[in-house]
Amino acid sequence: MTDIDLLTYLQTFITESRKETFERVLAERTKHFTVVLEDLYQKHNTGAVVRSCDVFGLQDAYFIENKYKSYLSNQVAKGAEKWIDFHVFKGEKDSSEKCVRTLRERGYQIIATTPHDDSCLLEDFDISKKSAFVLGVEKEGVSDYMMQQADGYLKIPMVGFTESLNVSVAAAIILHSVTTRLKQSNVKWQLTEDEMNEKRIDWCKKSIRSVDDVVKRFYEEK
User: Fold this and answer.
1) Domain shared by 5 and 66, yes or no
2) How far is residue 131's CA from residue 103's CA, in Å, rounded to a whole number?
3) Residue 9 structural domain
C-alpha cells in the first residue's frame, strides 16, 4: 500500500468540486516564502496574518512563543488555519534559536521586517531566494536576537506622518508584493509532487467526517 492508494480511497469520500478546489489551490501554493510570527499577543493579528498566508499561497507559518501564546481568532482567520501548516516553537529558553536553526536547515534566509534606514525597500527585495519574513510583537517589533540573526532587513515605504503599520497589515502588503513578483518570475516556487500529495491527503482527511474510522477501514480492507 502506498500514500497514493490512501489518497485514491479518501477521494471517493469528497465531491468532485472539492477535489477541483484542492487542485486549484495547490497549483498556487508555495514554500518559497514563509512568515515567522514572533510573540504576537493580539489574537486578531495572528488570525489575520494566517489568513493572508492562505490568500497569498504560503503553505507554512512559524510561531515563536517566548512570552505569549499565539491564539488564533476564528472570526478573523475564517477557517484558513485548517489549510496552513503551523510550526510552533515554545516552552524553552532557546525557542527562537531553534526556530532560526530549523529555517536555515530548510534553506531559508531570515529577513527581519523593520523600518531601519539600512533596510531594503519592499519593491527592491530579491524574490529569488527562499525567505522567512519575521514579524515582531506589537509596538516593540522584532526582537534583538532576530535582528542579530537576520540575513537582511525589509521595510515598506511610507510617505505619511505615520511611521509604522499594524503587523497584520504589514504582512499582507509584504506577501502581496513578493508573491505577485514571484509568480511572474522564472523561480521554481511551486510545491513538489510529493508535497502536493501530502497536502491532498491532509486536506481530504480534514474534509471527511469520522475520518479515523474511514482510514481504519481502508487498512482493514487492504
Assistant:
1) no
2) 9
3) 1-27+200-222
Q: By mean pLDDT, which of 66-75, 103-112, 149-158, 174-183 is the weakest? A: 66-75
User: Does the pLDDT of residue 93 top 60, yes or no?
Assistant: yes
3-state secondary structure of 81: helix
Instruction: Decide: helix, strand or coil at residue 133.
Output: strand
Residues 22 and 74 in one domain: no
Taking CA 158 as the corner, what is the angle to CA 154 and CA 164, rounded to the nearest 5 degrees?
A: 75
Q: Is residue 42 part of a domain?
A: yes
> How many independent structural domains does the chain possess?
2
**Are 67 and 107 within one domain?**
yes
List the grid coordinates of 125.
Answer: 527585495
What was the pLDDT predicted at 68? 61
160: left (phi over 0), alpha (psi -120 to 50) or beta: beta
End-to-end CA distance of the chain: 8
